[in-house]
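Thread amino acids onto this structure.
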């Protein structure tokens, strides 16, 4: 009699009820967390309004001259703050390694317009892989970084 009872084990109904009792609170906590995150989506830019593109590049005697264009596809004006170069060996250089030749129109990019910048990077033997541009929105002072890949 005792052996027969031991072999039966736990009823399938008890197992299903135990799983339901565990899964329902987990699903409710996940739903609450996701609902709280929805409010933060308003602050996320799905499409970046400031983008960059390569116009030309040349390399001579340890200096690379890169001409890039920046396009403002958004609704707000951007002010260009800084340029840095991403080198092929993974280092990022700025400051005295970079000289920026700008058009007379300055560093402000209004909505729907483009600006062209010529950047001279002293690299030695390492080539430039990309240019990192830091800009800020004129209205909110929110900073944005744009990577212009050089291929």
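Threaded sequence (151 positions):
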């Amino acid at each position: 009699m005792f052996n027969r009872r031991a072999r039966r084990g736990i009823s399938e109904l008890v197992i299903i009820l135990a799983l339901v009792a565990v899964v329902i609170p987990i699903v409710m906590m996940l739903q609450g967390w996701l609902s709280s995150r929805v409010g933060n989506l308003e602050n996320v830019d799905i499409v970046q309004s400031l983008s960059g593109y390569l116009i030309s590049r040349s390399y001579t005697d340890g200096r690379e001259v890169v001409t890039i264009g920046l396009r403002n596809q958004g609704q707000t004006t951007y002010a260009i703050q800084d340029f840095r170069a991403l080198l092929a060996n993974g280092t990022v250089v700025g400051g005295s390694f970079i000289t920026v030749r700008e058009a007379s129109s300055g560093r402000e990019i209004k909505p729907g317009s483009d600006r062209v910048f010529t950047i001279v990077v002293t690299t030695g033997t390492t080539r430039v892989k990309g240019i990192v541009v830091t800009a800020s929105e004129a209205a909110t002072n929110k900073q944005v970084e744009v990577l212009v890949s050089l291929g």
